[in-house]
Write a structure and sequence with these properties.
The protein is mainly β. Helices cover 0% and strands 55% of the residues.
Length: 110
């Protein structure tokens, strides 16, 4: 669940010397997700040696990127476990896609 909040504020500036006034409207648009509504994808263990486990159901795609943003691994309709034993040691980003949402998490390969 997310929601958007539109805030409208009027700001007035006055010229001190002549008493002229100029006014304009400033519109602030912010979107926020309440902390209790944020879902996250839990991956474990982190750091990982051989297999990375996913806590989400209905995962449609998993992509793993290195620190330069190069896609290293991609799996469609994966199980809850991804083998990362072939990856060299380093820090990676896993992108987990479901039908409606996309999550990114960092993990360390030892």
């Amino acid at each position: 669940m997310s929601y958007s909040v539109l805030q409208l504020r009027r700001i007035r500036f006055r010229r001190c010397c002549r008493g002229d006034q100029a006014s304009f409207d400033v519109h602030f648009l912010s979107t926020a997700v309440p902390a209790y509504a944020r879902k996250s994808a839990h991956i474990y263990p982190n750091p990982v040696n051989h297999e990375l486990h996913l806590s989400l159901e209905d995962v449609q795609r998993v992509e793993i990127y290195d620190q330069l943003g190069k896609m290293i691994l991609s799996e469609t309709n994966p199980h809850s476990t991804i083998s990362v034993s072939s990856l060299p040691q380093g820090i990676y980003i896993v992108k987990i896609s479901t039908e409606n949402e996309c999550y990114t998490e960092k993990f360390i390969k030892q």
